[in-house]
Amino acid sequence: MTTLLFYLPFLLLFVLGAGYAERKIAAWIQDRLGPTEVGYRGLGQPIADLFKLLQKESIVPAAANKVLFVWAPAWIFVVVFTAFAVLPVTHAWRGAPTATGALYLLAMASLEAVGLFVAGWISHNKYAQLGAMRVLWQFLAYEIPLSLSVLSVMIVSQTLDLHAIAAQQGLNAPTCTSVSACWLGTKGIDVAQWGGILSWNILRVPPLCVSYILFFVISLVACHRAPFDLPESESELVGGYHTEYSGLCFAWLMLTEYSMLLLMSLLGVILFLGGGHTPFPNLPGLPLGSWTSGLAGTWASHIWSGGWLFTKALLIILIQMIIRWTFPRLRFDQVIRLCWQYLTPAALLLCLLTLWWQLCTLD
Questions:
Q1: For 83-137, how does the pLDDT look when each residue is reduced to its tens digit (9 = 90+)?
Q2: What digits encode the pLDDT tens for the residues 196-209?
Q3: Which residues on neighbouring strands pair with residue 283, listed in sequence order?
């Protein structure tokens, strides 16, 4: 639980940096300049935007439920923020000691959809209510394939503890099954002493590589990021569920959106991409893995593991930002069809393939 003391200030700084980075990326893709006026190359623009939101009046519609309207955005952020309690920061600085961390995180992330629905529905604005209904429909569409993609990792790791899952993907990893230390599940090719990318789940069990692709796409849907940002599509619904929000209430919603983006990226890194372990393996005569990991229990180990964890997550977020400003928005029926007719059967098939792979590689 002490990791929350790290994640709260980190989220505030991350939102400021991510907002600036996304505007610069959008400008680069669209051949514009982006923020340039406030500070050097516009670096002060996020601070200016923050002060602007804090000074703005939070207007409450006359027909809205005033208590729910004001408290719903803050409640949504609290729900998402509590999901960070089970995420580790480094190998030694772990999250809450629970054996069901993955289920807890998915459950708390699911409550975000309920909060967004309430925030939009009680606004008594037709655009906000349409956005609120889209939130629920999108939630019903992506929740099953998201859970199935996580289940594929559970089949291999045989645990719901996020720290244990990450620990199985590094140097001298503790093995719970014969396949957990074998490259591509091949008997006799033990990668526990090599570490690096060779011991990540996406290479230890080939079906998990495809599962991560599905997880990545579904995480875009879960975070309401383009091309799946139907609940707030400005070309159709003005602002969707947050149409009536302004000032501090709007700031809470933006903080929640970027927090959810970081949460899903960190979850993907822990489940599929080795967590805080280095991507460099130990080669004969060249122990890159040991050099970029540090000795266990030292400050170097803390710095390396935390650095690798967040570097991977930020790189994934960078890719998601590029996707947002590259691909056009899908229609609502296309998103539902994608999740139900393609992602759900594919995720179920990958679960079965992962189970079959495990059975075939058991001693």
A1: 999 999 988 888 888 888 899 999 998 998 998 999 898 888 888 988 898 999 9
A2: 888 899 988 889 99
A3: 286
The amino acid present at 327, given as its one-letter code, is: F
Helix H segments across the chain? 3-29, 45-55, 66-82, 101-121, 126-157, 162-167, 201-204, 206-222, 234-237, 247-272, 288-291, 299-324, 332-337, 344-361
- The span from the CA of 55 to the CA of 58, in Å, is 9
Going from the C-alpha of 42 to that of each of 31, 178, 317, the distances in angstroms are: 16, 53, 21
**Which stretch of DSSP H or E encloses residue 283?**
strand 282-283
277 Cβ contact partners less than 8 Å away, ≥ 6 residues apart? 166, 169, 170, 171, 195, 196, 199, 200, 293, 305, 308
Token pair 């495809």: residue:
210
The C-alpha atoms of residue 11 and residue 77 are separated, in whole angstroms, by 11
What number of other Cβ atoms are within 10 A of residue 25's Cβ? 17
pLDDT tens-digit series, residues 237-286: 777 888 889 888 889 998 999 999 999 999 999 999 999 999 998 888 88
Structure tokens at 194: 């090599």
* Amino acid of residue 37: E
Confirm if 88 and 275 have CB atoms less than 8 A apart: yes
pLDDT of residue 176: 47
Residues 6+ apart with CB under 8 A from 132: 116, 117, 118, 119, 120, 121, 231, 241
CA–CA dist 14, 195 (Å, integer): 30
> Is residue 188 very low, low, confident or very high in pLDDT (cuts 50, 70, 90)?
low
Rounded CA-CA distance 225/219 in Å is: 9
Which residue type does 165 have? I
Given its phi and psi angles, is residue 278 left (phi above 0), alpha (psi -120 to 50 degrees) or beta?
A: beta
- Taking the whole predicted model, whether its pTM rises above 0.85 is answered as yes
pLDDT of residue 178: 41
> Positive or negative, the Cα torsion across 140, 142, 148, 150?
negative
Distance CA 39, CA 35 (A): 9
Asked if 255 contacts 11 with a C-beta cutoff of 8 angstroms, the reply is yes
